[in-house]
Each structure stands twice: as structure tokens, then as C-alpha cells.
Design brief:
The protein is an all-beta fold. The chain has 2 domains: 9-150, Immunoglobulin-like, CATH 2.60.40; 197-490, Kelch-type beta propeller (Neuraminidase), CATH 2.120.10.80. The chain contains 1 helix and 44 strands. The strands form 12 sheets. Strands 5, 6, 7, 9, 10 and 11 form a 6-stranded antiparallel sheet that branches. Strands 1, 2, 3, 4 and 8 form a 5-stranded antiparallel sheet that branches. A 4-stranded antiparallel sheet has the order 14-43-41-40, with no helix packed on it. It is elongated.
């Protein structure tokens, strides 16, 4: 694979393999990839000292996701500072990501979230200037395998999911894992992060679908729903991840399913749904639960009664989106509840009317995703609402169109999990949306495919609870997903 570049140089040959991973030796922790190549100048193998620049590139955008010196990320530009390497009879070797080399930075494993990145190389012989070598080089599967395998060799900083360092295969204190890139005192971030995957947790006492969920002070409240005992549940059960156990709390006053919940200033607000008899009772109910006092209170009713709706909180205000109302199946309704004045106001309607949708917040913006619309039974719609400007923006559509899903936000990312899609009643799919890049990626699927479930974030994990599956119409399943952990090295 030789190609002359201005009759000055040629590159040929590249081998990419992971040569280091997490182990008990501090020096081994960065991800490193062996790269070997051949350069020629004026048709002859080059001998001497060469100046090389390297970037791992997303070929779809052409942008750098890693560069040897950490510059020009997010652009298609050449890195600023070169790596100086000896070249003998045209051949050179380098360990990409080896921070002991001048002008070389570590390679975060998140670089391999996308499965088609390539290596781009620039070369200068000191006489003819710097030129990009062609073609870009394919990186072997070893790097992607490393990205998944690091989870098996990690240890925790703070008893993640109740497990201490003894649950992992690294000596205690050697490496720790955190939920952010900010290292605790006495530790340094290694540049390595990884997806930790799913694990089963204590099942919910009352199996149900169409319930609502909310997280307050590290506890998850599962409220209402449709159970084997009643179509319109009042159940209020709370899950404590620290003890992996459930307890029963004061039931909701108005039994209902297909409702939505949002947390505002420490109170859980349960909005709408349906309450019998039959499916014709489109609830306007707005009831607030105080976890501290274990008590409920009735608040100003929602202007538009509806079911299969979504709710989210921004700036102390709860916004309630879409749903199915008696007046029409595919609501664009956007109503805001302000607990301070116990009052409602109407906001800019959602562009795509839909029910069985989901919503979550990143940086003060609400993302409303999926659902069932007049135009599409399995919506891919991803529309963002900015309460500050009361305006909507259309974003990159979800790869797998579906309704009856959940969407949660953690570490600046949105995770759309489960639901029903074309031909699949109980999806396991887990797709992540990056608002900064306006792009989606596929993550580890949920073990129990389901729809009409609920999800919430506690500490570093997303907990998916209840719903309806192929095995049960009234699921008790409780599965925890840790999307991203960061590895640190003790100083």
C-alpha cells in the first residue's frame, strides 16, 4: 500500500495492538498501541531522525479525538508538537499513548466508544516540511477489546454498588475508580475510562408496569403503576442502593398508572396518568410526596389531563410534556408547574406531538426523546427544550425508534434504554446521546428486555425497574447500569 506524496515520502505498514492495561504496576496503566511504519523520501527508504505527529480520527466527521500532544482536538488540523523518532532503513516504531515519550499523551479508552476510528500520521524529514501520510491506518480490534476488558481489572474508590476492592482483581489502593474525571486527593487520573455494564439488584416488592420513578437523596421511589392486584396502583416503594433493599412508604392518594414524576426541591411530584374506571379517566392529579415526612399533599391540578406523559425539572420548575389526552392522542402540550406559587403556565408546544415518550435534563436543557406519534409508531424524535428561551430545537434522531422507553442523564450524557420498537415488543437496546457532539452511540444492552418500566440515577449508576417483559406483565426486575467509570493512580 504505497503512495508517493509529492515524490517526497511514502508510508507503508501499521500494526496496532494493545500492549498495556490495568495491572498492579503503576507504569502499565495507560492504554498503549504499537505502531510501525515505513517512510521513503524521493523513492528511497529514509534514514535519520524524523518528526512525526499522530492523531486518532473519527472518519465520519474528520475530527481528531486524540492527538499525540493533546492539541487540535475536535478539529481536522495537524497537532502542534511532533514526536521525534529514529528511522532506520525507512522503518520506525512507536508506542502511541506512552506518556514517557516527549510530546506524547495517554490515550483514554473512551476514544474507542466509536468503533471505526483510524490513525492519521504526519511526517517531516526536516527538509521538505510536514506532510500527511496517506492512507489513514486501521486500528486493530485489540484497542476495542481493551476498552471493554478494563472493567474486569478495576478497583473502586468508594464501594461502588456496595463492593469493595476485594471484589476486583487489583491490589487495594493501587488503582481506584470514580464517577468523574476529577481525582480525589492523592490520586492522578490515568486517562482511562470504561463502561462497567449491568448487574442484577434486589427486585421490587410489587411487580408493575406504567409506574413513575424519582431519585431523592440517594434513594429511588417507585410510585403507582399497573399491577396484578389493581390497574391503578397507589404503591410507593423505596429502594436503598447502599443496603440493596426495599421498604414500603405511605401510598399515593390517587391510585393511577401511566403517570410521570419529577423532583423539585426535595419533593416528588406525581403528575397525570389514568385512574379508572376504564382508560377514559385522563388524570389532572398533581400530588406531592415529602420523603422526610413520608406524607402526601394535593397541589394545583394539571391544566390538561393526560396519560403516557413525561416530566422533568429545571430551575425549580417542573415541565410536563406530551402524552395522550381525551381531546387527542398525540399531545404537543408543554405545561410548567411552579411549586412556589402552586400554579401552572403554558409554554411553547413540542414540535412532534407524541405519547409514551421520555425526557431528561443536561445543563438546564430538556431532551424529549422517542414515543408514539401520528406519523410514526416508533419515534426516533429527539427534540430539546430550553426553558430560558421557551424554545425548541431538533436534534440528532435516536438510532432505534421506540416508545415506552426510559431516558436518564448521567455525567452529561443521556441514556435511552428499553421500550418497544418495530418487531420487538421488549427491547434491551441501550443507546447514549452526547449533547455536545449531537451524536449517538450504542452501549451494553439491558439484560431484561422491557417496556413501560422506570429508570433513575443513584450515584454512578442507572437503575431500571419494573415494566412489562416477555416473562412477566408485572416485572419486579431491578437492574443497575454503570455507564462510565474513571481510573486513577495513587500518587
Amino acid at each position: 500500500m504505497m503512495r508517493m506524496l509529492k515524490k517526497v515520502l511514502v508510508v507503508t505498514g501499521m500494526v496496532g495492538v494493545v500492549v498495556a492495561g490495568l495491572s498492579s504496576a503503576h507504569g502499565d496503566i495507560p492504554l498503549m498501541i504499537n505502531h510501525q511504519g515505513l517512510v521513503k523520501v524521493d523513492g528511497f527508504p529514509f534514514d535519520g531522525t524524523g518528526q512525526f505527529r499522530f492523531a486518532i480520527v473519527d472518519p465520519d466527521s474528520g475530527h481528531n479525538v486524540w492527538t499525540n500532544d493533546g492539541t487540535k482536538l475536535g478539529t481536522s488540523q495537524t497537532p502542534t508538537d511532533p514526536v521525534t523518532l529514529p528511522v532506520v532503513k525507512g522503518m520506525y516504531n512507536v508506542r502511541l499513548g506512552d506518556a514517557s515519550i516527549s510530546n506524547m499523551t495517554v490515550i483514554p479508552s473512551t476514544v474507542f466508544d466509536d468503533d471505526n476510528v483510524v490513525l492519521r500520521v504526519w511526517f517531516s524529514d526536516g527538509t521538505h516540511g510536514t506532510e500527511q501520510l496517506d492512507p489513514d491506518q486501521v486500528i486493530t480490534s485489540g484497542a476495542y477489546a481493551y476498552h471493554a476488558a478494563t472493567a474486569d481489572a478495576a478497583t473502586t474508590a468508594n464501594l461502588l454498588d456496595g463492593q469493595g476492592p476485594s471484589a476486583y482483581r487489583v491490589p487495594s489502593g493501587s488503582y481506584i475508580i470514580g464517577g468523574t474525571q476529577t481525582p480525589p486527593s492523592g490520586y492522578t487520573y490515568t486517562g482511562i475510562s470504561f463502561e462497567a455494564g449491568w448487574s442484577p439488584k434486589a427486585p421490587m416488592p410489587t411487580g408493575r408496569n406504567g409506574l413513575a420513578g424519582a431519585a431523592v437523596d440517594g434513594m429511588l421511589y417507585a410510585i403507582g403503576g399497573y399491577s396484578a392486584a389493581t390497574q391503578y396502583e397507589t404503591a410507593n416503594e423505596v429502594y436503598d442502593p447502599a443496603t440493596n433493599s426495599w421498604s414500603i412508604r405511605t401510598p399515593m392518594p390517587t391510585g393511577r398508572c401511566s403517570l410521570a414524576a419529577a423532583v423539585v426541591n426535595g419533593l416528588v411530584y406525581a403528575f397525570g396518568g389514568i385512574s379508572g374506571p376504564g382508560d377514559a379517566s385522563y388524570e389532572v392529579a398533581n400530588e406531592a410526596y415529602d420523603p422526610v415526612g413520608d406524607s402526601w399533599s394535593t397541589k394545583a391540578p394539571m391544566p390538561t389531563g393526560r396519560r403516557h406523559l413525561a416530566a422533568a425539572e429545571v430551575g425549580g420548575v417542573a415541565y410536563v410534556f406530551g402524552g395522550e389526552a381525551e381531546s387527542g392522542s398525540y399531545q404537543t402540550t408543554n405545561e410548567a408547574y411552579d411549586p412556589t406559587g402552586n400554579s401552572w403556565s403554558t409554554k411553547a408546544p413540542m414540535p412532534t406531538g407524541r405519547h409514551l415518550l421520555a425526557a431528561a435534563v443536561v445543563d438546564g436543557v430538556v431532551y424529549v426523546i422517542g414515543g408514539y406519534s401520528a406519523g410514526e409508531q416508533y419515534e426516533t424524535a429527539n427534540e430539546s427544550y430550553d426553558p430560558a428561551s421557551d424554545s425548541w430545537t431538533v436534534k440528532a434522531p435516536m438510532p432505534t425508534g421506540r416508545h415506552s422507553l426510559t431516558v436518564t442523564a448521567i455525567s452529561g450524557m443521556l441514556y435511552a434504554i428499553g421500550g418497544e420498537s418495530s418487531g420487538i415488543l421488549y427491547q434491551t437496546v441501550n443507546e447514549a446521546y452526547n449533547p455536545g457532539r449531537n451524536s449517538w452511540s450504542t452501549k451494553t444492552p439491558m439484560p431484561t428486555g422491557r417496556r413501560l418500566h422506570v429508570a433513575a440515577v443513584l450515584d454512578k449508576a442507572i437503575y431500571a425497574i419494573g415494566g412489562r417483559s416477555s416473562g412477566s406483565s408485572y416485572e419486579t426486575a431491578n437492574e443497575a447500569y454503570v455507564p462510565l467509570l474513571y481510573a486513577f493512580r495513587k500518587d
